[in-house]
Design brief:
Layout lengths: L14 E7 L2 E7 L18 E8 L7 E8 L5 E8 L6 E3 L5 E6 L13 E8 L4 E9 L5 E6 L5 E6 L9 E6 L11 E5 L14 E6 L5 E6 L4 E7 L8 E10 L6 E6 L5 E6 L4 E8 L2 E9 L11 E6 L5 E6 L5 E7 L6 E8 L5 E6 L5 E6 L4 E6 L12 E4 L3 E8 L1
Antiparallel strand pairs: 1-2, 2-13, 3-4, 3-30, 4-5, 6-7, 7-8, 8-9, 10-11, 11-12, 12-13, 14-15, 15-16, 16-17, 18-19, 19-20, 20-21, 22-23, 23-24, 24-25, 26-27, 27-28, 28-29
Pfam family, one: Lactonase
Family: Belongs to the cycloisomerase 2 family.
Keywords: Carbohydrate metabolism, Glucose metabolism
Length: about 400
């Protein structure tokens, strides 16, 4: 596509413009928004009990978002409420714990391309464990699969995977109002391109949007284009909320399909799952740039079944990294993290005891890891050895329809 710029100015409080830049398309509507106050994280509950919010797919047994009381002393979980909403497959909780945001992942593999997904906002009463629906806005794309609040809480970023080539993979920026409700998108960024994996990389597929530790950069992981796109976060009102960074993107191995990115506790390293290649990669990070330093396969040597790298999370102390692998593998790889180099050393592997462990979470105390088996309608709570990183046998089982995402919230 040729480089060009197109501008269309409308009278009124908002300025609407469309900017086409080689490699991706930005469509933005810049409007006045209110800053959303964010509180610092609260201390752990005295009784060791957290709220656990679980996102699901609702095509089967599930009704929506579930809230459990999770006891970190015993690993027991007791359901307290459910909020009915469609396919809330990924969640974000505000830092003050008053609001929860969930994608409504539509249309799915068999839905019409004309159907856009949504993002729903809920008020959350941590004391009672109740979610109250506030509003819902369009995700401005198909199959929203990831949401992340900006560091200042002013915007919610949503990644649209988009099975359909039209509109294709994108991410949208949704202003957050002072009452927790969402406003219509002020910015939508479409990527262009694809990769060699037919059926998986026929077009762009934005799978996650993650901020750098300093909050100055946004990384958009695009499974379809094999790129980690880099943007500057510019919320000062002088331009749109994000703009292309000087270091436009980081290429990864062709056909590998980058999915989720997280940063290490030291802020100097980042870790990436690549779904199609079933690998985890280590990068050194500095001022918006990522440099590849290590790649590790997830499957055991000689494995010949299907697989697909999914989620990755660090233990609270940053000493261990856990990575889920779906398909016939259906397990979690456990790596020790070198404190100086950030590099990984495998220390174990644990079956998820079910089918398709898409997401998982480690509780804030570091004692428990809970993994959801999307295709088996189960979640398992493993006791975690904080010294070795290993997961102990005989986990506790939770029966829940198509569990996907998990978020712990202090009460």
């Amino acid at each position: 596509m040729n480089d060009r710029n197109e501008y269309c100015v409308q009278r009124g409080s908002a300025r609407l413009f469309t900017r086409l830049i080689k490699g991706f398309v930005i469509m933005a509507c810049v409007a006045a928004t209110h800053a959303f106050p964010q509180a610092t994280s609260t201390a752990a509950p005295a009784d060791g009990v957290y709220d656990l919010i679980v996102g699901t797919y609702t095509s089967g047994k599930s009704e929506g978002l579930y809230v459990f009381r999770f006891d970190t002393k015993t690993g027991d979980a007791q359901q307290v409420s459910v909020a009915r909403t469609v396919n809330p497959s990924f969640l974000e909780v505000s830092r003050d714990h008053r609001y929860v945001y969930a994608v409504n992942e539509l249309p799915g593999d068999n839905g019409p391309a004309s159907l856009r997904g949504d993002v729903s906002a809920f008020a959350f009463d941590a004391a009672s464990g109740q979610l109250t629906f506030l509003n819902k806005v369009s995700a401005q794309g198909n199959d929203p699969c990831y949401v992340r609040l900006s560091p200042d809480g002013r915007y919610l970023f949503v990644a649209n995977y988009s099975v359909a080539a039209d509109p294709g993979g994108s991410f949208a920026v949704l202003p957050v109002q002072q009452d927790g409700k969402l406003s219509d998108a002020v910015l939508t960024v479409h990527h262009e391109g694809g990769g060699p994996a037919k059926g998986h990389q026929d077009n762009a597929h934005v799978h996650s949007t993650v901020f750098s530790p300093d909050g100055h950069y946004l990384f958009a992981q695009d499974l379809g284009t094999d790129k980690l796109w880099t943007y500057r976060y510019t919320p000062d009102g002088s331009r749109s909320p994000v703009s292309p960074a000087q270091w436009r993107y980081t290429d990864v191995k062709t056909g590998s399909g980058p999915r989720h990115l997280i940063f290490g506790n030291d802020g100097r390293h980042a870790y990436l799952t690549s779904e199609l290649a079933a690998i985890v990669s280590v990068f050194r990070y500095q001022d918006g740039r990522l440099k590849l330093e290590q790649v590790e396969k997830l499957a055991e040597p000689g494995f010949e079944g299907t697989q697909g790298a999914a989620a990755l999370h660090l233990s609270p102390d940053g000493k261990f990294l856990y990575v889920s692998n779906r398909g016939d593998a259906s397990d979690i790889s456990i790596f020790a993290v070198d404190a100086d180099s950030g590099k990984l050393r495998r220390v174990g592997r644990q079956s998820s005891l079910g089918g398709s462990p898409r997401e998982f979470a480690i509780d804030p105390t570091g004692q428990w890891l809970i993994v959801g088996n999307q295709n088996s309608d189960t979640a398992y709570v493993f006791r975690r050895d904080r010294q070795t990183g290993l997961l102990e046998p005989n986990p506790k089982r939770i029966d829940i329809g198509s569990p996907v995402d998990f978020k712990f919230v202090a009460r």
